[in-house]
Amino acid sequence: MPRHEAVRPQYRWWIPLTVVAAALALVLMILFVDRGQNDDSARNTDGGQQEPDVVVTEVEDPEQKDLSDFDSDDEDPLADGPVDAPVTLVVFSDYQCPYCAAWSQDTLPTMLDYVDSGDLRIEWREVNVFGRASEQAAKAAYAAALQDKHWEFHEKLFAGGKPRAPEDLSPEALTSAAADIGLDMDQFEADMNSPKTAEAVDENAAMGTELGAFSTPTFILDGQPYVGAQPTSVFVDAIEQNLEGQN
């Protein structure tokens, strides 16, 4: 080789090939992880077909309030069952919450059987964590409850175990739902828009916030907190244990 001719660097063909292979592996890993997350999300939003995790979680910082210290109001329109029932279940819900809708379809009927037998009192509280449409629905539900049609109206808003879209919780849509179950419409509209109803809805939401019920549904069953749409068996077992302990 002539002395003046510079030594040409040897072309390392494997370097770009390695870079391409690494990039391809990274893309495949991202796609795999993303698909797994989507599958989990789909299972969690398929109307409750998957059995929820059986985990009883304590409400955050339960020392803020004595959870057994609830004053039952015999005139509470959102309550059902004897005021002196052996067991009381307080439910914190939201009309845009899919898990609340699933629980209402899967478990509420069994709870109402206990109400009918006089063993359980249910006190329903809307916390409206999903915003203004939920608050409007809560006012409408309260107005329906004033005509003793809370559960019928509740079922209309959670038909099929699913919540309505926000646009289907407009005052017009809620009024239409009220008409479907035969409410006195003049009275319903007056109650839905009254300051007294707004005050009651605000008080119920504030109660949930005070207890730390920032996720829905949250339950207080005779002082014991439960979070999430637990299976029906969790509530049945808890009620039966409470009833047995009082005999």
TrEMBL record:
It comes from the Bacteria. PROSITE patterns: THIOREDOXIN_2. Residues 40-79 are annotated as: Disordered. The keyword Ribonucleoprotein does not apply. Residues 69-78 have a biased composition (Acidic residues). Pfam families: Thioredoxin_4. Keywords: Disulfide bond, Membrane, Oxidoreductase, Redox-active center, Signal, Transmembrane, Transmembrane helix. Residues 45-244 form the Thioredoxin domain. Coiled coil: none annotated. One of its GO terms (molecular function) is oxidoreductase activity. This is Thioredoxin domain-containing protein. It comes from Brevibacterium koreense.
